[in-house]
Amino acid sequence: MNTEELLELPPEIEAELQAITDLMFERQVSTQAAINAHSQAWKDLERHRSQEAAEALLRAEAAMVSAGEALNAASRMFDEFLLRHGIDPDTLEKKLPSQKNRLWQKDLEPATVPKDSVDIETALQQNLEQLLDLFPPAWIERQLVKAMAIMRGRTATPPFLLGHLSADPVIEDRFSYGLALAVALLVETPHFDIYEAPSLVPQIAMLCMMLPALEKVDGGIEKLLELRKAPGREVDSRIYELLVAAGAADMGRKVSFIPTHPGSKTPDLRVHDMHFPVVMECKLQSRQSEVENQTVALMRPIRDWFQIERQKGNPILGELRLSLTSRVGSLDAAVICEDLRQLWSSLNPFQRGSYAWGSAEWLPLPVEMKLSTTMRAFCPAYLEELMPDATETGSEWDGLFFLVEGQFGPTANSIKMPLCVRWRLEHPDDMSAVARNVVRHLGEAIEQIPHGEVGIIYIGYVDTLRVALADQRTEGIIDALPEFGHTKRGVLAPMAEINRLYPHVSEYGAPDLIESAIPATQDAERALHRYFPTLVFTAGDGADLDDAEIQS
Predict the structure, then answer these.
(1) Residue 536 forms part of a structural domain
(2) Mutual orientation of helices 235-250 and 197-209 as an angle, nearest 10°?
(3) What is the rounded distance in angstroms from the CA atom of residue 396 to the CA atom of residue 282?
(4) How do residues 306-341 score in pLDDT, each as one tens digit?
(5) What's the CA gap between 321 and 128, in Å, rounded?
(6) pLDDT digit string (tens) for 479-500?
(7) Residue that is last in its domain, among 399, 427, 455
(8) What total of structural domains would you count in the chain?
(9) Containing domain of residue 25, as a range?
(10) Could you say which of 95, 127, 144 is where a domain stops?
(11) Residues in contact with 145: Cβ distance below 8 Å, sequence separation at least 6, in sequence order
């Protein structure tokens, strides 16, 4: 949000303030560059001990002093401007509204987050056909047929969730699966992968919205076309790069993708229309941590064991809550299954049992339940009619799997023989590993910025964790931001955006995505936000939003 907008200055004064803040930023960049050059001159003198190196150090010192004086002059101009218009510089910060308005997960609810100016369906209707036309028709047809077959299989299978999303293995043809989900949403096919859609359909919708801007990016369409051959685990990060580039181009920047070479570390994008050399680096953290992968690997055989027992005629049903207090990587699914067998076989299975690995608690559920209306099978509304807090996976539980009898189609009007197993990690080391801090990616990104360049950094991650872990991660980010600075001499990184993504499923199965940005910046006025996007996956109404939702 621009300073002039916050202070509601008359239009005739805005241009003056704009010029002053632009001048301040340019002189900040020049000063930092002079400081870096001075540091390098010291290193050169220590290495060579020559007259030439000593003279270079004196010149660098003079340039640093001159740049500092110019920056101080610009700062005085800013202070004088504020005083001239009755604004005390010492109280300026109090006049500015806080940018940290929605940091915690409880505040990032659909009812409280600004809606995107275009919803998912509208974005798809406007440009999905143009997006599909970029790819060979035979490939599109072949991939849609394959994806629809996968969707039919997943629709008939009860969910296995990590957070709010499917814990199923990543589909290798992930990009084409996202295209198929977008098509399925528009044509309202009954077979729809509701727990994979929130992580893919909003991405496709934003590609559709930003397609005209992406065409302005040098190499943008070529990078987009590469998605059809990209490994499934790389698709999301590549789309992130494309949307950052398109967002910058949409704000008027002249952007190009930087060619990559095997074994070399280079940033993703170059900006050509600033007064100083600027590159952009984008990193999207993998969706699941190693501990979460271990948890899924543990819970799958437990689910399979329950399926086999039920097929044998053992009427296991109810809600089972597992708290894993030991390190998940050390646990044996067979041991847990045997303990659960004994608990279920006891005279009163609906009780709590404590074990070396943690605890288990059975809660009763009805053998059969009539739903209030026919609805999509396994959608949040379906689960909530059986268990009012079932879809609050992100509140207290890390994941769940669900089993029923007699459910074969995409819709349901009743639930028979339900078994729901929810789990959470409680070992402190596992919790810390899951709430992994993304700030380390800032250092990695800076390492890819060439010497003498200004780096604009974007870090993204998907957050479907329970509230305690999500907020623990946010606290870690905030605590680490004061340490954000230069880890590489000769590099200035005045702006970074940490994009938190909260994909979720609406009541009856439509995909939604909430995006929240945490600015990590050395530019107190956030002046660069007039030139680069804050939000990546949600367009919002401009660059002045830190949170937005794109919804169906």
Answers:
(1) no
(2) 30
(3) 31
(4) 999 999 999 999 999 999 999 999 999 999 999 999
(5) 42
(6) 776 655 545 556 677 788 889 8
(7) 427
(8) 2
(9) 3-95
(10) 95
(11) none
